[in-house]
Specification:
By secondary structure, the protein is mainly α. Helices cover about 80% and strands about 0% of the residues. It has seven helices and no strands. The mean pLDDT is about 95.
Length: about 150
């Protein structure tokens, strides 16, 4: 595999890998993502690779690996100050934790994502209200899973 030489090529490759995951080829995508991870090392772009690895592992129901990858992505996106990516990764991590039955931890991630999405939605409601609504739904599901239906 030839490594991407530009940001444009890098993000195009990530888009192709996302399509592979959606088409049920997560294992194939994970192989390429592993190569990218090793090539990037601790470069900031590795956060995007970790996020996609989280998605691929979640698709394969490897939830511990999914959570680990999302945590790595989250650390990188926080370091970059990329608030929308932090919020998205928190929501995805919440989903993986919920799938693992760790609903209290999922709830914490959803609540943090909601705080970020609310602030972002004030600036750009068209872009962030849909993900804000989705995260509220995820939080409600986590609360119901914990028997807190009145709060849900």
């Amino acid at each position: 595999m030839r490594l991407p030489r530009s940001d444009e090529e890098f993000f195009a490759l990530l888009g192709q890998l996302e399509q592979e995951i959606q088409q049920g080829q997560a294992e194939v995508a994970l192989e390429t993502l592993g190569l990218l991870e090793r090539a990037l090392g601790d470069q900031p772009a590795a956060s995007f690779v970790y996020a996609l690895q989280g998605r691929a592992h979640q698709e394969r129901r490897r939830l511990a690996e999914s959570c680990e990858a999302y945590e790595q992505a989250l650390a990188g996106f926080r370091a970059l100050g990329a608030t929308p990516l932090v919020a998205t990764t928190l929501n995805n991590l919440g989903n993986a934790l919920s799938d693992r039955g760790r609903t209290a931890e999922a709830q914490e991630r959803y609540e943090e994502a909601l705080r970020l999405y609310r602030a972002l939605a004030e600036e750009d409601p068209r872009a962030f209200n849909p993900v804000l609504a989705s995260t509220l739904n995820n939080l409600g599901n986590a609360l119901r899973g914990r028997g807190r239906t009145a709060e849900a």
